[in-house]
Amino acid sequence: MPKAANLNRDQMFNNSQSDPSENGSRVKNRKRLELFLILVAILGCVVVVILYGNVIESVKNTLSHKKEVYGVWVEQDVAYYSARILDIGPDGIAMEGRVYTTRYDFDGHYLTFKVAGQDYKFQMTNSENKEMKQVTNDHYKPIFRMSEKN
User: What residue ranges are annotated as transmembrane (predicted)?
Assistant: First the structure.
């Protein structure tokens, strides 16, 4: 048996007297496995960072876009006594003093929400997001303008 000072790392830990070429191939295989596992771990970390970044960016965009439509929206081209008024804020969408929904989405171009199973979709008609047109009704497409900002 060789002395401890003359043993390499594999011989000390494996306590084997096998052929050196066999030990060399084992070492190479172990190194390849270690390298593969390190690469998989790094790749996994990169994927997690990318996904986490996308989630944060999506939430930020959603919240910042919604603030653009906060305000009182008045229906145009109708008699003042029959004009619908939408009050859009962080708590939801109110009409005629009643909250119609607390869940709505705005992606920068379209405002969408659902009331009593009916979908409503409004398209912004200008770049300042001060005017929108209802696009869910086939026969009547009212236009709303922001009269005051919340």
Answer: 35-55
Q: Which residues pair with 118 in a beta bridge?
A: 115
Q: What is the C-alpha separation between 134 and 35, in angstroms, rounded?
A: 58
DSSP letters spanning the chain: ---GGG--HHHHHH-----HHHHHHHHHHHHHHHHHHHHHHHHHHHHHHHHHHHHHHHHHHHHHHHHHT-EEEEE-SS-TTT--EEEEETTEEEETTEEEES-EEE-SSEEEEEETTEEEEEEE-STTS-EEEE-S-SS---EEEEEEE-
Q: How far apart are CA 105 and CA 114, in angstroms?
A: 10
What value does the mean pLDDT of the chain take? 84
Q: Which residues does 10 contact at the CB level (< 8 Å), separation at least 6?
A: 16, 23, 26, 27
Ranked by mean pLDDT, which of 13-22, 25-34, 38-47 comes out on top? 38-47
Under 8 Å between Cβ of 10 and 23: yes
pTM metric for this prediction: 0.58
Confidence (pLDDT) at 93:
94
The full set of domain ranges for the chain reads 4-65, 69-149
